[in-house]
Design a protein that fits this description.
Length: about 425
């Protein structure tokens, strides 16, 4: 049947980029106490079919509408890809702001987008994303090979379970509009991973979900308190973040010569944390809003009469505190962790009523296209309410553990000395 054949995601990408261009992002103003900002670049390209013929390169870059009208772009065998970076964390280079905690396991590698902190003389987030991309991978986004489509919603980068704001992050979306472009020149500690969008949204095969285990003590204690870290690790265990396993990049030209000579290919590439959240923000724009009553202008893909999305049956997010996501777009909710100790997860659920209400509101906003609530910072509200539930849960768990230890020591003392 036709449903068994992979469906091109280029039409969905066209829809997503058009919506991003026409939708104003939620801009978060930096508070006076923390003015630091950062920006990243989400770079997308369409790889043509080997049998496609290309028109002559125009003198001026095409518009977004003109690009998706090209025959080689509309070819059903054309493949849309998004760029991730794998940075060698052992080198000690790069911007450590985007490190997402101490990760356990040495057989997995984690990906991110090109970008970094905004410098004092940067003109804005767009300039920062372009400068950082040029400095790290040698891609000049100001050239005519690329167009800036727009910006996704700002995100808050926090630490200490959401209590301290580190900076505001602005994701910028870029599209490569020519099939041939200058070869990237990444620094030796960075590898480029071009990932097919179909591997994230296609049903054949479905995205492979996994987890990334992070030491909870690294989020709760100072790195100089070794003894306190051991105690916290014993009391609350570790955190497990949902992640998508990415296929290895097949574009060997995106590796620096030094990296190809001295770095073994990663065992497993995982997309998680902030990068996963921003990727799912992009995917949420591929969703089809339900048709308005009587309009009949939209027919859901798949033939179902109920409002749906071509991604809803594919991008099933993992359960978060026993709340299963039906839609892609509450993306930040999909990056929230579970703890290795079941009682910690139970108390998070107990204190998470407000968080679940926010997520339901977020889902409702996504189903309606998010056109009426652009001033609501859904991601920030979900983040703060979830971390508030975690903090309350950890207080209960640590107090219960302490009381249990005191009771156990008291009972052991009575058993040893009291009976004598």
């Amino acid at each position: 049947m036709s449903q068994d054949k992979p469906r091109s995601v280029v039409p969905l990408l066209s829809q997503a980029l058009q919506r991003i261009r026409s939708t104003p992002p939620r801009i978060i103003a930096s508070p006076p106490t923390q003015p630091r900002r950062a920006a990243v670049a989400l770079i997308i390209r369409v790889v043509p079919s080997p049998h496609s013929s290309f028109p002559s390169t125009p003198a001026t870059p095409p518009t977004l509408t003109e690009f998706f009208k090209y025959d080689w772009v509309k070819d059903p065998h054309a493949q849309a890809e998004i760029l991730f970076l794998h940075r060698d964390s052992s080198s000690g280079n790069g911007d450590n702001t985007f490190n997402q905690g101490k990760v356990r396991g040495g057989k997995e590698c984690h990906v991110a987008f090109p970008g970094g902190r905004m410098e004092a003389d940067d003109e804005g987030g767009l300039y920062t994303a372009m400068r950082q991309t040029w400095e790290e991978i040698g891609v000049d986004l100001a050239e005519k090979d690329y167009i800036c489509v727009g910006q996704l919603d700002d995100r808050e980068i926090t630490t200490s379970l959401g209590k301290r704001l580190l900076m505001i992050l602005s994701p910028l979306v870029f599209l490569q509009v020519y099939p041939q472009s200058p070869t990237p020149d990444p620094i030796p500690t960075t590898q480029l991973c071009w990932t097919p969008l179909a591997s994230l949204v296609s049903a054949h095969p479905k995205p492979k979900w996994s987890t990334v285990t992070v030491d909870a003590a690294s989020r709760l204690t100072s790195k100089h308190s070794a003894l306190l870290r051991v105690v916290v690790r014993l009391l609350v265990g570790s955190m497990e973040f949902p992640a998508i396993v990415l296929p290895p990049s097949r574009d060997a030209s995106t590796f620096s010569e030094k990296a190809k000579a001295g770095t073994r290919p990663p065992h497993q590439l995982k997309l998680w944390g902030l990068s996963l959240g921003m990727t799912l923000d992009l995917m949420s724009y591929m969703m089809l809003p339900p048709p308005t009553p009587g309009s009949g202008s939209r027919t859901p893909i798949g033939g179902d009469s109920a409002p749906t999305t071509p991604l809803s049956e594919v991008m099933q997010l993992p359960s978060v505190q026993d709340f299963r996501m039906e839609y892609v777009a509450p993306s930040l909710a999909s990056v929230f962790p579970r703890f290795s100790y079941p009682d910690v997860n139970f108390w998070i659920w107990v204190f998470g009523k407000r968080y679940r209400e926010v997520v339901r509101g977020w889902e409702s906003s996504v189903r309606s296209g998010g056109t009426n609530d652009r001033r609501i910072n859904w991601s920030g509200t979900a983040l703060s309410t979830f971390y508030a539930a975690i903090r309350k849960a950890l207080v209960v768990v640590i107090v219960a553990r302490a009381l249990g230890i005191i009771f156990g020591l008291g009972f052991a003392t009575w058993w040893i000395f009291g009976r004598a």
